[in-house]
Here is the input.
Amino acid sequence: MTLTEGTRMHPASVAWRRLAPGSPPPAAIDVLKRPRGNAKSAVYRLRSVGPGGRDVIAKEARAALARTERTVYGELLPRLEVSGVDYLGWTSSEDRARSWIFLGDGAGAECDASDPAHRDLAAEWLAGFHLGTLGRAVPAALPTRGAAERLSALHRARNEINEARSASAL
Here is the structure.
């Protein structure tokens, strides 16, 4: 869905102008991922507001998730020898419970998992990412993902599956 009316007052546009005060209002806003209920994030493309009139991707997420993504985009990826999108900055939402992350639009062909060439490119990128992190200190702001967290995620998934199975039996 693309919004062309009221783009100046859209929350993504307001947040972007806090970070880049002199930027124009978006020519349009593409809704890439809608906020739904308790969704982790919402993603928008702000048309023609970035450096050189480029499009900007605006992602709103819970503060803890945004902090992790901010660390990856702003601290980790720039140190590696892999290509990535431009990290343009972040700002907190008005209530500070959520944050906005802004990235340059990495527009191009979408990855098609059924295409062997795309899978090869994705594998090369992941290999470069993992090789680039070997022997490097990981930013302290990244969460630790240990065995206990994985076990907890498995338990949550099992409970959700059991709940869905019992609901479908009704």
Q: What stands out?
A: The beta strands are 2-3, 29-33, 41-46, 56-62, 87-92, 98-104. The mean pLDDT is 83.
